[in-house]
Specification:
The chain is an all-alpha fold and about 60 residues long. The protein contains two helices and no strands.
Amino acid sequence: MYPLLGVETPMLTYIKSRNIGVFILLVIVTLGIYWWYLLIKLSSEINQYIDADQRLRQVINV
C-alpha cells in the first residue's frame, strides 16, 4: 500500500528471511542456545519494523 502512496518502505529490509534447515542444525549443535539468540534477534527486528511502520503512518496521516 505504501508504494501506491509514493512513500518508500525501507522497513521491509529489517526482517531477514532465514533458512529453516540451518536453524534446526544450529539449534541441535549449540544445544538450544541458538534458539534464544534467534528469539532475541527476531524480537529486535520486529520492533524496528513496527517503529518504522508507525513513523510512516504518521507521515501519511498528516
